[in-house]
Amino acid sequence: MSCSQTRNPQAMAIIREGNDGGQQTTQLQGVDGKAIQAASLKELSKEAHQSHAMFAICLQVAKNEPQEDIHPSMQEVLQEFSDMFKEPSSLPPIREVDHYIPLKEGTEPINVRPYRYAYYQKEEIDK
After folding, report:
1. How far is the first Cα of the chain from the last one, in angstroms, to the nearest whole number?
2. Mean pLDDT value across residues 28-42
3. What is the pLDDT of residues 70-82, one digit of tens each?
4. How many CB atoms lie within 10 A of CB 15?
5. Distance CA 31, CA 10 (A)
6. Amino acid 78: pLDDT
7. pLDDT more than 90, % of the chain
8. C-alpha span between 30 and 11 (Å, rounded)
9. Whose CA is closest to 36, among 52, 56, 51?
10. What does the pLDDT read at residue 66?
11. How many CA atoms lie within 13 A of 3 on its CB side?
12. Are 15 and 22 in contact (CB under 8 A)?
């Protein structure tokens, strides 16, 4: 099976070779700005009986609505510490030491391979 794209960015041809040596070409074509509508069960049954290939995509739009049913005790905590729950407006302040790993006195740097290498990789690394 081989694929080739045409000049149209919404089209692709798939060529399949059969056991008898013949070739079957299938072209996938995108929708050119046409409105897509939901099909009825009757239309889908008709397409299925005619052995047409079909697929379905189910999308659901999620709405980010604030929850109104917050427990009263939790509401008190949220109001008390409202300054902690604000969106950050800037980066955190610069610290003297951002990250620090304490090292033991007098230790040498670790010189151990992290994992075994194949002989040909080792020769290349040693060069």
Report:
1. 44
2. 71
3. 888 888 888 898 8
4. 13
5. 8
6. 86
7. 0
8. 6
9. 56
10. 64
11. 4
12. no
Tokens (6 digits) for 43: 């239309």
Question: In the chain, where do the E strands start and end?
Answer: 2-5, 11-17, 23-29
Q: Where are the domains of the chain?
A: 1-29
Rounded to the nearest integer, the mean pLDDT of the chain is: 74
**In 1-127, which residue ranges form alpha helices assigned H by DSSP?**
41-49, 72-80, 119-126
Q: What is the pTM of this model?
A: 0.22
pLDDT higher than 80, residue 22: no
Residue type, position 74, single letter? M
- Residue 2 CA to residue 14 CA, distance in Å, equals 6
Q: Is the dihedral angle over the CA atoms 40, 46, 49, 52 positive or is it negative?
A: negative
